[in-house]
Each structure stands twice: as C-alpha cells, then as structure tokens.
Write a structure and sequence with these properties.
Two copies of one chain form a homodimer.
Chain A (H helix, E strand, L loop, with lengths): L18 H9 L5 H21 L3 H16 L7 H8 L2 H9 L38 E10 L9 E5 L20 E5 L5 E7 L4 E2 L5 H8 L5 E2 L2 E7 L6 E7 L18 E2 L2 E2 L2 H7 L6 E9 L2 H18 L4 E4 L2 E4 L3
Parallel strand pairs in A: 1-11, 8-9
Antiparallel strand pairs in A: 1-4, 2-3, 2-7, 5-6, 7-8, 10-11, 12-13
Helix pairs in contact in A: 1-2
C-alpha cells in the first residue's frame, strides 16, 4: 500500500487485526523513503511474529528483559548484540546480501565482535602480528588479486586472531597494548606476509545473556580455529572474511555459522628456501591463500539483480535508491 | 517441518537461501517446545526481514548501535525497551492477544513503563493517591464487577498517574517516596474510591534513542491525559487498562496507541451529596467508571479460539501447551 492509497490513520480502537496498518500509517510521515520502508517491514514482521505465535505478555516481558541485559553488558570492547546477531545467523545473512560474490571472488564471512580500530599499522611486510610465546609459530604468506588474477598492490588489510588460549586481546581487562592484530598493505605482485601463530578453537563469550540463550537451546559455544582478514581497496567491494583450518572439531558446527568450504585450508610447512627468504624456522607452519577481490561495479550489478529477484518474489513494485530498494510509489 | 523430517544440519556453506532452515535445525535441540517454536519463528521473521529489504551491513550496524543504546539507558526506573515496544504498537498488540475480551468485559490497554512495585497499600477506601498541591483535585469513584454485573469484592487494584506537570514520581531523580500511585482493595458492592488529581497530557521520555526514532519518523511524543488501573482477583483474568479524558488534544494520536473508545470518559462534577459522603469539595471533578472483569475460564476459551484461527490461517498443525501454541509433531 502506498501513502496515496492510505486514508487518515485510525489511532483509536486498535485491535490485533488493524494495528499493523495503522502504526505504519503513523510512521509513514518519515521523509526518508528507505527508513520508512525498513520501519514498515520491521513493524509488519514484529507484529506477524506476535500474532502467529500468540505471544504472551510474560514471554514478551522475558524478551524485553533479555534484550535489556544484552544492551547492559555491552562495553567499548564487548558487543553482545553483534554476538546475538551472529548466533542467529543474521550476521552471515546480512554479509551475503550486502557483499554478494561471483564464483571467481573470495567468499565473505562474519566480522564477529572482536575487530578493533587500534591495531598497529605495519608499514612493511614481514612484521610480527602475534607476540604470544605459547602460540605455535605460523608464517602467513598470501596474495590479493582481482577476479581475473591481476595482483592488487597497496590494498589495506586488517588481520586479527586470538592468542594461544583462544582469547582476543580486547577480552583481557588488563590489556595495555593491542596484540594479535595488525593493519597491513599488500606489496608488489599483491603479496602480503607476516608472522603469527596457529589459530585455536575457542568459545564465544558465554557468561552473558547470549551464552544463556545458547545454553537454553542446548547449543555449544565454540568457533573452529580461524584467522580473520578484511580487505579495502578503492574500486573493490569491501571483503570481510576468514580462513578456517581443515579438520577442526568444530568445522561442521561453528556457533556463528561462518565456515564455508572455499575458506577451509590445510596448513602447509615452511620449506628451507622459504625459511631463508622470510626469516622463519624451516618446518614451521604455513598459511597460504590467494584472495580475489570483486570490483564495486560487479558487486553493484549482482546486488541489483538479487534485489530485483527478491521484490519480484514478493510481488512488489520497487525501485533502487542509492542501491537499496524502496517502494516505487509513482 | 518437524524434527523427524529434518536431516542433519549443514552448518557449512550457508547462503542467503539456505541459512534460515539450518539455523533452525541447530536451534531445534531445545527441549522446551514453546521456546523452540518462538525461536524458529523469530529467526524466520528476522531473516525474511533482511532478505526482503536487502538490509545492508551499514543499516544493520546502525540498528545494533540503536538497540545497544536502548539497553544502556535502561535503569531500575526507566525501561526504554518497553517504550520502544509501545511506540511500535507491539505492546498493545501483545496485550490484545494475551488478554482478549468479550464485548461485555472492560477492554485492556498498554501497561507503559511507569508502573512500579513500591506503591503504598491503602487498607481502606478514601485515601489520597496524589499529593501534588498544583493538581486539580479529582474524586475517583468506581466499581468493579463481573461481566454479568455482579460486584467483585476484595479485588487488588493498582492505580497510577502523573503529577500536574506530566511526570510520574519515578521520573524524578530525587524521588524519596512514591506518589501518584497506590494499591487498593474493592469494598462491598465492588466499590473503590480515592482522591487524585485530573490527569494531564504528557510527552513520553524523548531524550533517549526511542525519542530519536520518533523524531526521525516525524512523530510527536505525547500521550493524551489518562489514569492507569490494573486489576487482580483470583479466578479473573488480569486486567491492565486506563481511562482517557474525552476531548484531549492527543485523543486521536496517542504516541503509544493505547486509546480505545470504550475507555474514553467525560469527567463529572461532585454533587453536594457526594461532597458530604466522600469528604471532598462540592463541584470538584469526578471520575466514575464501572469496570467489568472477565473470568479466567472465559479468557482461556477466547484465547484458544483465536490461537486456532491463527494457525489455521497459516496452514499449520499445532496443539496447545499450557494454553500456548506449539507445533504438533505427532
């Protein structure tokens, strides 16, 4: 229904049958068509959820209490709402909607709540990203290219991982300086490399309300061993991804649904020649991967195709505004 | 789909097309059938919302930030998530689902975020509920009966209202003792009465994230003048309601959608006889209403009918568990 076909709102005498339409009429004064559309859809789904399930006051108050606790436990370095979004599969879904990939591009996955903005910038390749003496040393030697195999130089690459105990630096109350994270630049031939440690599986934070939800659902808290990578380069779509170690006990049951077969890797072994070239021990572990970034233009086209398919499925007349769908009211 | 017909979850390689089903398979280990059903429906609606709107990462992160702020501003005496639920019409909807009323029962409305549990208990009728010297005195003289008109004695009745400036006691940082609220008992013939002040319209708290949302939506913050009542009596369905003053400028545009025609009243005038009987000034304002409580049994039957209609509309096989629908997996 468009604004034009809507009557004046009837805000009195609202019932389960007429409230949704009238709340949306009231909200329709919003001058931003995208906000208006998002609110209309959110209200429709929230109300349908309550009507379909016959949601009780007690259940809704428990939900209010849960959401309040999720908000309360958030700090500058802990984002429990992102964790909630992660364990409900919503984070992966939004990434796949916003960053669709052709078969030739590296797949994306969940950002997770542990990326920070204070990682040290490495001006040259070869730096040490993890200083944990208990971690098993691992050379990371990768390339970043476009989908046609052409190297991309000077891409900005955020990398981050846990320490050998499965904790990110930000999870330590006494953290003084960032560790296990860095911002790098790809060099000539799209190569970037650094010294890190072999990732380990770890539990997502389970002492908060999201942990309580997982316990209630009889789900485990673990993520399989992985290493995070995030790429930025003008002209290319932002890529948030991670590499997963094959054979991890949680490879098939990641608590946040991030694993994709194309991102699962076997660790290699540093050869004698590589040991000399990169200044690490021969025989130590090696993580290698060739990342492929998709152009912004190709991403835009893919998103447009998928958006059109989605609204045709709903039988709606839509148009794109800044690349995002809004109702076509003409 | 029932658990029996579901295969093992495929938690790897999730895409926008297969993630919802697989998240729900993972969540289906929950032994509580009602929780499992609520989670399944919540995940379905959340994911459908993202897919239908082509939700962007930026939009989702703004939502995460908004929800975090809603949680952060909550205190023991401020519940911003209830306020959010109120302004989206969800609170009124849930009340109408959980407390359906036959035509003979008093309609319910939103509880709002300002009910507290520390109101003074008045052991006798006739007490003073509001001590605000700037308020216009109002005698409240009501009865509570069943739907056949039989008086209900000894019902527990919570009443609450703002002061003359439109603020509830709990909104004052320096609040020392409750005011503008009380817990009463109906006497013989179901009568209850007390001294209060004429309600005034007031803005819901607009200095938090929900206020920001209303501003973005170009909505006003006002609730029309009203007085809250909540009834409890064994054997009768809990009634949360309020009375609204006819002619209020916000009667037709309540920010939280609570007004119902049957709850809108004209204030009367205290007669000479009433002035003597109730110890108030002749000619002062009078709020009178006959409330009708619905039995638990009648409410149960109404809820069951409406639940069955809702699941038949969805074409689902359901059964009731403690009065609430769950999928029928037999």
């Amino acid at each position: 229904m468009t604004d034009e076909t809507r009557g004046a709102p009837h805000v009195k005498n609202l019932t389960a049958d007429n409230i949704t339409e009238n709340v949306n009429i009231i909200n329709s004064k919003c001058p931003n068509p995208r906000s208006k559309y998002l609110l209309e859809k959110a209200v429709q789904h929230l109300h349908d959820f309550a009507r379909e399930t016959r949601l009780s006051t007690e259940e809704w108050m428990m939900t209010i209490k849960f959401l309040t606790e999720v908000g309360k436990i958030c700090t500058d370095v802990r984002q429990e709402f992102i964790l909630l979004s992660d364990v409900l599969g919503l984070s992966l879904l939004v990434d796949s909607i916003d960053h669709p990939k052709p078969a030739t591009g590296t797949e994306g996955t969940v950002l997770g709540p542990f990326h920070s903005h204070d990682a040290p910038h490495h001006t040259e390749n070869g730096g040490t990203v993890s200083h944990d003496p208990d971690g098993e040393p691992m050379l990371v030697l990768c390339t970043v290219r476009d989908t046609e195999g052409k190297p991309i130089q000077d891409a900005k690459i955020d990398v981050w991982e846990t320490d050998s105990k499965g904790f990110y630096d930000v999870q330590y109350a006494n953290r003084e300086t960032p560790d296990g994270r860095a911002v790098l630049r790809s060099g000539k031939d799209g190569v970037f490399w650094f010294k890190a440690i072999v990732p380990v599986p770890y539990p997502i934070p389970s002492d908060g309300p999201v942990g309580g939800l997982l316990k209630h659902l009889r789900r485990h808290y673990y993520r399989p061993s992985h290493f995070h990578f995030m790429f930025e380069k003008p002209g290319y779509d932002h890529l948030i991804t991670a590499l997963y170690l094959r054979g991890d006990p949680y490879e098939g049951s990641d608590a946040v649904f991030g694993v994709k077969e194309s991102l699962v890797v076997d660790l290699g072994t540093v050869s004698s020649e590589q040991a000399g070239e990169y200044g690490v021990q021969e025989g130590s572990r090696l993580l290698s991967y060739d990342f492929a970034l998709v152009t912004e233009e190709e991403t835009r086209q893919l998103k447009e195709e998928k958006a059109k398919a989605a609204w045709e499925k709903q039988g709606m007349r839509m148009r794109l505004l800044d690349g995002l769908p809004v109702p076509d009211v003409d």
